[in-house]
Amino acid sequence: MRLSDLSTPSLLVDAPAFAHNVAVMGEAWPGTTLRPHVKAFKSTSLARELAAAGHPAFCAATPREVLGLAAAGLGADLLLANEVLDGARLAAMASADARVTVAVDSEATIAAAAGAGIGEVLIDVDVGCLRCGCDPSVAGRLAELARARGLHVRGVMGYEGQLMMEPGATKEERVAGAMHRLLGAHAEVGGDVVSGGGTGTYAVNRWVTELQAGSFTLMDTDYGRLGLPFRQALSLWCTVVSVHAGPSGWAVADGGLKALGMDHGNPSVVGHVLVYCSDEHSTFAATDGGMLPSVGDRVRLLPAHVDPTVAYHERMYVVDGEEVLDSWAIDLRNW
Ligand SMILES: Cc1ncc(COP(=O)(O)O)c(C=O)c1O
């Protein structure tokens, strides 16, 4: 199949860029020191590529992701890095053919996990992200409570999400501060695991025993601004469906905000200048001295945020130049 055979809008993964990203991250965080976060790509096919590259332990954000990985035979060591109170979903994960660990940060989440038959937990610690995670001062008490309920406490996790986009100069120092909180909690909790980090802190977080990064696989233009050594592998392949010629003219591509996660900003249009996105359309202008395309031409849009973009689609097509090599189902969508 050729790129020109694909209907639009279609999500594309550039195969050489993806391979480069996996190799670069694997060099820095080899084997199980990397626990790839599937929330960014939501695909067991992509996860299988990471397992083949030596990273068989995964991080997930939803029970659906955990259950899908388990059903695909990728359940060697799955961490649900998120709080869940739904007894039915917890019980489904407990009986899945997988090693499942869940994050807990309160008496209620410990009771829910223990009541549903979950065997292993991490104490989730707030490291400044204003999201889930207990205060470090209560982490030890929660670990004792979990053990008293029969749970195996593997250690701690703490996601320093607020520092992912921090610019270079202060990043290392602020990550050190966040990880100091996490290590303080770990001293009270015990266990082998200190889990945290992401694409934006992969080069400066020296404190976690495993990195929870996911965006590095496909990348987006928001992370692209940081100048990390990862390449933009994800794009939205669109057809130009309308052109208004003239010096202040514009063209319209057939992918808009229903095909692109826009919370981190507008997508970029390769070779052109984006004007705005609406439901089904992206309107763009020519660059200075550039030409508008013709109706029927194809353009690539580069998403600003990978996770929600992927979640809008049912599959991604793996391409190398003009050739479509493979198609990966986005089979871990929904909750
Ligand atoms: C709990 C958790 N860990 C790690 C990550 C890191 O992911 P990324 O690779 O996008 O930085 C995220 C992203 O939202 C997350 O929610």
Structure description:
With about 325 residues, the protein is α/β, with parallel strands linked by helices. It has two domains: about 5-10 and about 230-330, Lyase, Ornithine Decarboxylase, Chain A, domain 1; about 30-210, Alanine racemase (TIM Barrel, Alpha-Beta Barrel). It has helices spanning about 15-30, 45-50, 65-70, 85-95, 105-115, 135-150, 170-190, 220-225, 305-310; strands at about 10-15, 55-60, 75-80, 100-105, 120-125, 150-160, 195, 210, 235-245, 250-255, 270, 270-275, 280-285, 300, 315-320, 325-330. Strands 1, 9, 10, 11, 12, 13, 14, 15 and 16 form a nine-stranded mixed beta sheet that branches. The protein has a seven-stranded parallel beta sheet with strand order 2-3-4-5-6-7-8, covered by helices on one side. Helix 4 links the parallel strand 3 and strand 4 (about 100-105). Helix 6 runs parallel beside helix 7. The radius of gyration is 21 Å and the shape is elongated. The model has no long low-confidence stretch (mean pLDDT about 95).
